[in-house]
Amino acid sequence: MRIAVIGAGAMGGLFGARLALGGQEVSLIDASEPTIQAIKRQGLILKSHGGSNTVMLPVGRADDFQNPFDLLIIFTKGFHTSAAIESVKHLVGPNTWAMSVQNGLGNAERIAAVVPNERIIVGMTNFPADLIEPGVVSSHGEGHINIWTASGEDDANVHHIAEAFTAAGLECIANPDVQVAIWEKVAFNAALNSLCAVSGLTVGGVGKSEQGRSLASQIIKETVAVANASGIAAQQSNVATAIQHAFDNHVSHKPSMLQDVEARRRTEIDFINGAVADRGRNAGVDTPVLRTLGDLVKLIESGY
């Protein structure tokens, strides 16, 4: 497949490198000139438990590329999705698919402004990845990907893409219940990202606190209630198990939202806690704890 990865950060770098090493024709599209120049100069470097791999890939801004791609994978933060998909609309042909396994809610709706809904793939992934410096990504540990069409319809292309990802070392399944996986990850992120961002504590620090564990539990309960009211069969127990695993095994980890706060960058809070609170309001489900944590992150941002 001819694949464009849009956003050459941690996750974009991980997926781009593994897909290229797996034999796919991959190009990287980014808006950051330092990132583009670093990858042009040294290649994309992936450091993992298997060692270090360097791949030389075409890289540039959207306008540097021509001709439609088979697959566009969006790896920007949610608040950049609209601009990102608009920038690559000239690379969308009649058979182009677009894929989002981004954090949060609402990305598919933004992608649909350019790509027809029936050719949009949504999903989630829990692969670990950290950006060491522009063009250098570290990924230690394994994960998985769940994907399905945004329309909910089965399509052979989704199965073909899942097989290509798995062959490249990115374990992927075509899962018609993908919305459950998406919402359970949203609940996980709504709890850990917001609590770490507000407290300044690592995942382990939150887990050591009785108050931290209690707040996480309440956020999970509220998020799952919104999902259930929206017809999504997410389960609190699945999220609670994932949270406990993080408390036990990712003690020193700083979630991306905490890293953003420390760097005084805009966070994705509007696409996680904010999006769930909005949908809860529309569904008649109150989300006081989730909404308050979201407001506190916004308050921190206002102080930049």
Automatic annotation (TrEMBL):
Enzyme Commission number(s) of this protein: 1.1.1.169
A Pfam family assignment: ApbA
Keywords tagged on the record: NADP, Oxidoreductase, Pantothenate biosynthesis
UniProt-listed InterPro entries: 6-PGluconate_DH-like_C_sf (IPR008927), 6PGD_dom2 (IPR013328), ApbA (IPR003710), Ketopantoate_reductase (IPR050838), KPA_reductase (IPR013752), KPR_N (IPR013332), NAD(P)-bd_dom_sf (IPR036291)
A single MF term (Gene Ontology): 2-dehydropantoate 2-reductase activity
Metabolic or biological pathway: Cofactor biosynthesis; (R)-pantothenate biosynthesis; (R)-pantoate from 3-methyl-2-oxobutanoate: step 2/2
UniProt family annotation: Belongs to the ketopantoate reductase family.
Name of protein: 2-dehydropantoate 2-reductase
Organism lineage string: Bacteria, Pseudomonadati, Pseudomonadota, Gammaproteobacteria, Pseudomonadales
